[in-house]
Specification:
Blueprint: E1 4-5, H1 10-19, E2 23-25, E3 44-46, E4 56-58, E5 62-66, H2 71-76, H3 84-90, H4 96-101, H5 104-110, H6 118-123, E6 127-131, E7 136-140, H7 141-144, E8 145-147, E9 150-151, E10 158-165, E11 171-178, E12 189-197, E13 203-211, E14 218-219, H8 221-227, H9 258-278, E15 291-292, E16 304-308, E17 311-315, H10 323-330, E18 349-352, E19 355-358, E20 371-373, H11 386-394, H12 403-415, H13 424-431, H14 442-453, H15 478-482, E21 498-504, E22 510-514, H16 518-522, E23 527-531, E24 541-542, E25 551-552, E26 558-559, E27 565-571, H17 573-578, E28 586-590, H18 596-601, E29 616-624, H19 627-632, E30 636-644, E31 647-648, E32 656-662, E33 665-670, H20 675-686, E34 693-695, H21 713-723, E35 727-730, H22 733-739, E36 742-743, E37 746-754, E38 760-772, H23 778-788, E39 798-806, H24 820-838, H25 842-849, H26 869-891, E40 897-909, E41 919-926, E42 931-935, H27 944-956, E43 963-967, H28 984-1006, E44 1014-1018, E45 1021-1026, E46 1029-1034, E47 1045-1053, E48 1072-1084, E49 1090-1100, H29 1107-1126, E50 1151-1157, H30 1179-1191, ...
Parallel strand pairs: 1-3, 2-3, 16-20, 21-35, 33-34, 38-39, 42-43, 49-50
Antiparallel strand pairs: 4-5, 4-15, 5-10, 6-7, 6-10, 8-9, 11-12, 12-13, 13-14, 16-17, 18-19, 18-20, 21-27, 22-26, 22-28, 23-27, 24-25, 29-39, 30-37, 31-36, 32-33, 32-35, 37-38, 40-48, 41-42, 41-47, 44-45, 45-46, 48-49
Helix pairs in contact: 11-14, 12-13, 20-21, 24-30, 25-26, 27-28, 29-30
């Protein structure tokens, strides 16, 4: 750890800089993201306590912005009209947390080509003030930034502020930022423009700057000259021409191609000029007279004192420690979550002096003397605040990992409104810096609106006994999540716990040899051991399938993707984090990587795994009827090709947990979706019998399939066993994204045909799925896709083939749909194309062909019950017609924006494909009269905790408030299977029902009562009312079972399926979910930007056990579908954080109307089926359908980024 200095005088800072090199720290919004997972060893000069560097001051001829002035200071300042562009840019810098901490001068010194502040500052002719111990100088901003991340700053110098000349003429300014999502976006193009008025309505001077299109933001001086003397009118937009943009040198990167950037810059400049030209008379220049924004936090001492939730605390942590780490590790306030350590996710949002900040980017020294509020400070004496209660009643917490951040951001907003009505836009702006992957944001927005604007919060009564199923019961696990009390994987460890960090391959494909690690251990105090493959006691391989254990806990001599684990450092955290990967004696020999499906299938491609010739892991096949004949006799047929890329799960909680050795057993406490699968996997790695492994799951901060594969569990077990101490591991965000599984990239070809009446006659499908370096869930995807390939339609002849292909990419695993979302792009695209070719309405065409009760599926399974697609489509008809009419009316204007309405349908087989899929639950009554549900169905945010109790309570005949709950622990619950494939409501729900019925039967037998008797518990007294007779049982006198319950019921359910034959024929699933969604989108015809405006989602769920939770799942699925369709693209080594990898923010998810169709499934618990996967599958097809409807282009390569959409538009025009 280096030296930390926080002077309160500029001279002291300059003297320090003259003596040696220091790293300057101000807002921390660049400093901390650059050091994720690293120990901070530099000497740090913190300049935030220097009064001379703070605030904004206006003088006669200039305005000065001090070096530590924040973006929020700029937004709040009463600045001249020429500064409007800078203030607009300030609102686009990150979320409000970053705006409250990040500094304008820090943005300039960062010198990024995408720095938001630079274009407007260049238009303002800003001058950079620089000081050293020996001199002061001023440099024009245009000369200060000399290149990408390069400035004219010399050693020993410090930027002290920006000096901006005041305009002498009336002026107007604006700023436009083009990005692929609403908040937290790095720009594709930025444009800033200032126009000065001659006084008679003409342009006296113009300054136009384009950012993100060159190493340094560029002024368009030729265009500026062309504008002088022209009338201030919207016609100014006609002046810019491509030749004016010759100075730009854009690059190709993940956000856009060079060609797109160049053309988008022209469009944005034209729009900026049109906006300024349409505005009224320019505002006159103002007189001098204000100084704002100065804050004088005391310099840090030792210990550092500040107020947390009303109490003064003193901490002795190193001053540069992240405030989030101090709150969590030293003060035990783990309600502040950490999802990225880079300010990208907002999970660590707290209030500092009443303003939201990201605690992961603030040094604890800057908290000295400040007031800190965390989520633990919201609930007075454990009673939920008004805001928390609104979150509770609206179902705004699902997995709960983002909930504290959301609550704190909303608290900031509400505390500054003083009882004024709050708008949805204000809420989105306030919450824009907090990411959520579960909820789809809509219930969160509704909760804040309710807390802000409703005088009385409505409270639904708890359902009576026997009426829990179907009730909008509040989540039983919500209060602890809302108070910040839920314990996630990184939240708790025993004393004396060691830290483990995994060393991973930097190469996609390489062989390697390990050197001698003993010397490194000997010379690194606190480093206890370096584990390698030789330390694995049992089987070093792991994998989902018993016969495929192809991924190593620690690789032995070959790595197959960037992220493969090769060693593990175990010791004290500082010691472990002080070691750089390059310090390790590992000799790498890079090999030629196989990148993508095409190169993997090439004849000359190296074979990545023995037993997988041609790199094909497995095949899936389905054949029903004569497809060739169906195509030959067709009146109309269409075909096409589709491609998708890797999609990251992006759960906000990275993988985390700890393990400890207890006698001859290992206990593992970690975030997971599948406790029993983890137990069995770890047992074979350790060479133990399964009963020597205990998995005690923590709360799971999102999964979506990504936490079905083991992550930290095996290596933690190995480390805890060898070192005989508790060992913890917490992935960094880049590590999580590099190492974890992804949605399978796909390459799909499909063809469909109809007769003259529009009835489908045949469907053919070929799909290759990139399963990456290891099998993971590849066989499941290959098996499931052919069954679902033709969609939820009655098709007499279907052929479908799939392959799982190995490459040197990250393993592709389970992700909400197991390949069905990719296949749905093809079948829904073809349904649109067939309808259009036949001249039929797209919804009516689907209604004509929708599978109905009595129809056969492509596997020849006859569906008898709960086939609700027709009801879903019929429920959408009126909205579909109305939206189509309104879009057509909007499009008459012929402006740059067009609107379209699209539709997507889906079906999804619930549970495993043609495999045994059992779940077992127990429920008991103890001597105190408390009922406990022993629920092995892991809660991952989908609501399992609550709905299992609702089901069991009704089966038993008691109210839900009689229940306690034990979840997931393999020592305390039975195996309820994994939380995936939308199976828990159907399979575990039935197990909970059967367990409740079993316990009820025992109670009735004990009391000699009839089946219709009423059961009641009053303390230890069990009261059974049977007609006029009442029987009482003293539970305290009954013998205990296993030292706990006196009565215990058990239920097991395994949905009936049959194996598929060689042609894919059989009954792969007991039941199916069905859905149809419609969406209206706005397409920017010049920029290619697509914005969903509203959704209606009709879903057949069989029976809604809890309608609020069903709606929450639909919202979350649609949000993920928006990301899949429009922005999400994981590129190994490039998009391994949450600012380069884009997921939707609160501003990207529009209003969603949910229509719950209850076509009850007789096999389901009270008729229920499932909703997790079905919620996402139709969304992307519906969006692509709407783009086609609006713009006349069908996007077949996802995501439909602005660049790709515009390229399609140009291709359609022949340009």
């Amino acid at each position: 750890m280096g030296t930390y200095l926080r002077p309160n005088a500029l001279d002291a800072a300059l003297q320090a800089l003259s003596a040696r090199d220091w790293t300057i720290l101000a807002g921390g919004t660049d400093f901390y993201p650059a050091r994720v997972g690293r120990r901070i060893d530099e000497d740090i000069l913190d300049i935030t306590a220097i009064a001379e560097l703070q605030g904004i001051a206006e003088a006669d001829d200039h305005i000065r912005i001090g070096a530590t002035t924040t973006w929020s200071d700029v937004i709040a300042a009463d600045l001249p009209p020429s500064f409007r562009g800078l203030q607009l840019a300030a609102r686009e810098v990150g979320g409000m947390q970053v705006q409250n901490a990040g500094t304008v001068c820090g943005n300039v010194c960062n010198a990024s080509p995408a720095a938001d502040g630079v274009p407007p500052l260049l238009t303002l002719d800003a001058v950079v003030e620089i000081a050293s111990a020996y001199d002061e100088r001023r440099v024009a901003l245009a000369e200060f930034i000399t290149g990408n991340r390069q400035t004219a700053l010399s050693p020993g110098e410090l930027v002290t502020g920006l000096c901006i000349p005041k305009p002498t003429r009336p002026s107007r300014s604006t700023f436009i930022k083009l990005g692929a999502r609403r908040y937290l976006v790095i720009s594709i193009v930025m444009v800033s423009v200032i126009l000065e008025d001659t006084g008679d309505g003409k342009v006296a001077a113009a300054r136009i700057v384009v950012g993100s299109c060159s190493e340094v933001a560029q002024r368009l001086v030729d265009l500026e000259r062309m504008l002088i003397g022209r009338p201030l009118h919207a016609d100014l937009a006609n002046v810019p021409q491509p030749d004016h943009f010759r100075a730009l040198t854009p690059i190709n990167d993940v956000r856009g191609t060079a060609a797109y950037r160049h053309d988008a810059a022209l469009t944005c400049v034209r729009r900026a000029l049109a906006e300024l030209g349409e505005r009224g008379p320019a505002a006159a220049a103002r007189s001098a007279g204000f100084t704002i924004g100065k804050r004088l936090p005391p310099p840090a001492g030792a210990p550092i004192a500040f107020v947390v939730n009303g109490e003064t605390v003193r901490v002795s942590a190193p001053p540069v420690s992240r405030l989030a780490d101090v709150l969590r590790e030293e003060l035990g306030l783990t309600g502040t979550k950490v999802g990225c350590d880079a300010g990208d996710c907002g999970a660590c949002t707290i209030l500092m002096d009443g303003r939201q900040i990201c605690a992961c980017m603030v040094p604890v020294a800057q908290a000295a003397g400040r007031r800190i509020t965390t989520v633990e400070g919201l609930a007075a004496n454990g009673t939920l605040s008004r805001l928390q209660s609104a979150f509770d009643s609206q179902g705004a917490a699902q997995c709960g990992i983002c909930t504290p951040g959301m609550l704190m951001a909303a608290s900031d907003l509400l505390s500054h409104k003083d009882g004024e009505l709050v708008t949805e836009q204000e809420i989105c702006d306030a919450l824009g810096g907090v990411l959520c992957r579960c909820t789809g944001y809509r219930n969160i927005v509704a909760a804040v609106l309710t807390a802000a604007n409703d005088s009385v919060l409505s409270e639904d009564a708890e359902p009576a006994a026997g009426a829990a199923v179907g009730a909008r019961l509040k989540r039983l696990d919500a209060p602890e999540k809302l108070r910040g009390e839920a314990v996630y994987g990184a939240d708790h460890v025993p004393e004396n716990t060691l830290w483990l960090r995994i060393i991973r391959s930097p190469y996609a494909h390489a062989s390697f040899t390990l050197g001698d690690f003993d010397d490194l251990v000997d010379r690194t105090p606190g480093l206890e051991r370096i584990l390698t493959w030789a330390d694995i006691p049992g089987n070093n391989g792991f994998g989902i399938y018993p016969d495929i254990k192809d991924q190593m806990v620690l690789a032995k001599d070959v790595v197959r993707y960037p992220g493969d684990a090769v060693a593990a450092l175990v010791g004290e955290r500082d010691a472990v984090e002080s070691i750089h990967d390059e310090d390790l004696p590992i000799d790498w020999q890079p090999l030629v990587p196989v990148t993508g499906i095409a190169s993997s299938l090439a004849e000359e491609a190296p074979q990545l795994h023995a037993g997988c010739p041609g790199n094909v892991l497995t095949h899936g096949r389905l054949k029903k009827g004569d497809v060739d004949a169906g195509l030959d006799r067709a009146h109309v047929q269409v075909g096409g090709n589709w491609e998708t890329t890797y999609v990251e799960h992006a759960y906000i909680e990275p993988e985390a947990g700890y393990a400890l050795r207890v006698g001859d057993r290992i206990e593992i406490h970690a975030s997971t979706q599948s406790p029993y699968m983890d137990r069995d996997e770890v047992a074979q790695v350790m060479g133990f019998e399964p009963d020597r492994i205990r998995i005690s799951p923590t709360a799971c901060g999102g999964g979506f399939g990504g936490k079905l594969d083991v992550s930290v569990q095996p290596i933690l077990a190995v480390a805890a066993w060898h070192l005989e101490r508790p060992v913890r591991c917490v992935y960094t965000r880049p590590e999580s994204m590099a190492a974890s599984t992804k949605r399978h990239p796909s390459r799909i070809s499909a063809r469909a045909a109809t007769d003259r009446e529009g009835k489908l006659t045949a469907y053919r499908f070929e799909g290759d799925f990139d399963t990456g370096a290891y099998a993971s869930w590849g066989p499941t995807v290959a098996d499931r896709v052919p069954v679902h390939a033709s969609g939820p339609y009655a098709v007499p002849a279907v052929e479908a083939h799939s392959r799982a292909i190995h490459t040197n990419g990250p393993p592709s695993g389970a992700f909400r749909g197991f390949g069905v979302p990719q296949a749905s792009l093809a079948h829904e695209g073809l349904m649109d194309a067939l309808a259009d070719k036949l001249g039929m309405d797209r919804l009516e065409f689907r209604l004509l062909n929708a599978i109905r009760a009595g129809d056969e599926t492509p596997t020849s399974q006859r569906l008898i019950h709960s086939v609700g697609l027709v009801q879903c489509l019929e429920a959408l008809q009126s909205r579909w017609r109305g939206w189509k009419a309104l879009a057509a009316e909007f499009n008459v204007d012929g402006n740059a924006h067009r609107r379209g309405v699209g539709i997507g349908c889906m079906w999804y087989g619930i549970g495993n494909t043609s495999m045994s899929n059992p779940s077992t639950m127990e429920v008991g009554i103890d001597r105190r009269g408390r009922i406990t549900l022993y629920n092995g169905a892991q809660e991952i945010g989908q609501g399992t905790t609550t709905i299992m109790i609702q089901i069991c309570a009704d089966a038993l005949g008691v109210p839900v408030d009689a229940f306690d709950h034990v979840m997931g622990d393999t020592d305390l619950t039975l195996d309820a299977g994994k939380s995936s494939a939308s199976r828990q409501a159907l399979v575990s729900g039935n197990a909970a029902r059967l367990a409740g019925e079993d316990l009820r039967a025992q109670v009735l037998r004990l009391s000699n009562a009839s089946p219709d008797a009423h059961i009641q518990l009053k303390g230890a007294e069990l009261i059974v009312t049977d007609g006029d007779a009442t029987r009482r049982v003293d539970l305290s006198r009954l013998p205990e079972i296993d030292g706990s319950d006196v009565l215990r019921g058990r239920g097991t359910f395994d949905p009936p399926t049959t194996p598929l034959d060689g042609n894919g024929q059989g009954e792969p699933y007991a039941t199916y979910g069905f859905a149809a969604q419609i969406v209206e989108v706005d397409v920017d015809m010049e920029l290619g930007l697509v914005r969903p405006l509203r959704f209606v989602a009709a879903h057949d769920v069989g029976r809604a056990i809890n309608p609020t939770q069903v709606e929450g799942q639909i919202h979350g699925g649609i949000a993920q579908g928006i990301g899949f369709a429009l922005m999400e693209e994981y590129i190994p080594g490039r998009t391994e954080n949450l600012h380069d990898y884009l997921i939707p923010t609160v501003g990207d998810v529009p209003d969603i109307e949910c229509i719950i169709i209850e076509d009850e499934e007789p096999l389901g618990p009270y008729g229920a089926k499932g909703i997790g996967e079905p919620a996402l599958i139709p969304t992307a097809p519906a969006i692509l359908s709407a783009i086609d409807d609006a713009a006349g282009v069908r996007i077949r390569s996802l995501p439909a980024t602005p660049d790709r959409v515009r390229a399609a538009l140009l291709e359609r025009k022949g340009g």
